[in-house]
Design a protein that fits this description.
203 residues
Length: 203
């Protein structure tokens, strides 16, 4: 992957950073961007993200192109990796947007570290993630937009998307579910305040 220069960490006043590339690796110095509010990643294949990104308490928006593949090899110690990354290190209290992040990148309990989420999108959510989203306490009482999708490589996760309990998300207004057409009749509990519901046939 293309390695971004370490000098990016010297841009102290940077508030918005957008990156478009097929494959890229972010430097560890990204953690020095104390004024960064929005990280917009438009990558077609693979990205390597330093752990520091998930500790940037001032971040408001993390947007990832849905075609991207985020998870790095298991032996990468300087990258976000769900196999070695401790939950306690996630600190995003001001994050409002996390969209669209692949489920295999996230540990389910990390979602509770983002209490101000308003827009959440997860592709191929794992069963633990689906369970956390359906718990009695919403991951965020402010959540307004939710997008969940499953592709054919993760067929075993379909059932969890069709049995979601979203009835406690009183602020949720827009819901997008991408599941096989045959599963639409098995949808779980939906929030009563929805104003937009999108159901897409996954394959």
């Amino acid at each position: 992957p293309f390695q971004l220069p370490n000098q990016i960490g010297n841009l102290r006043h940077l508030r918005y950073f957008r990156c478009e590339h097929r494959s890229i690796k972010f430097p560890l110095t990204m953690g020095k961007l104390k004024n960064l509010m929005t990280l917009d990643i438009q990558i077609g294949h693979r990205i390597h993200i330093p752990k520091a990104i998930w500790e940037m308490e001032q971040l408001r928006h993390i947007v990832v192109d849905k075609r991207s593949i985020q998870w790095p090899p298991q032996d990468c110690r300087d990258l976000v990796c769900k196999y070695s990354f401790r939950q306690s290190e996630v600190s995003l209290p001001n994050l409002q947007t996390l969209y669209v992040v692949p489920g295999p990148l996230l540990e389910a309990e990390w979602l509770h570290k983002c209490p101000n989420l308003r827009k959440l999108g997860i592709s191929n959510p794992t069963k633990p993630i689906s369970k956390v989203i359906s718990e009695e306490a919403p991951v965020s009482n402010k959540l307004e937009i939710l997008r969940l999708s499953v592709n054919h490589r993760y067929e075993n996760e379909e059932a969890t998307l069709t049995k979601l309990d979203l009835s406690r998300y009183e602020s949720l207004r827009k819901l997008h579910l991408q599941i096989p057409m045959g599963k639409f009749s098995e949808l779980g509990k939906l929030p009563l305040n929805l104003i937009k519901l999108t159901l897409v046939n996954a394959y």
